[in-house]
Amino acid sequence: MSAGFPPCRRRDQRGSASVELVILVPALVLVLGLLVAGGRLWFARATVVEGAESAARAASLARSPGEARAAGQQAAARTLATDGLSCGADSVSVDTSAFGVPVGTPATVTATVTCRVTFADLDLPGMPGSITVRTEGAAALDTYRARS
Question: Which residues are 130's β-sheet partners?
């Protein structure tokens, strides 16, 4: 020992690993839950966008407003079902007013898809139970094709 310096005392480290674990595990679980929620939301948005674009494209290929509405709803439902997303019966709306535009005039068919994404099974503090994702897709009608 050198003169003037107090002797070094070792601190007792027993139990420090338990305290660290008690602090870190909830934080890691929270981060993991947020990652799962973010992934679920990203997937739902991508699927809803794909469904709206598919619905608009299918509707633009139809010959009449009734056929367009049915084709758009079927295409969107097929896309959502293929990706495993369940949105409800009234989640697809196809605007067929473009069929009333005279031939030779550009017109666009639009489709809107709305889907509720649930987070109830995650049990994260502050996380809402669900978020509604809504998007619109558009496709042009053939300018010189006959419309009914």
Answer: 118
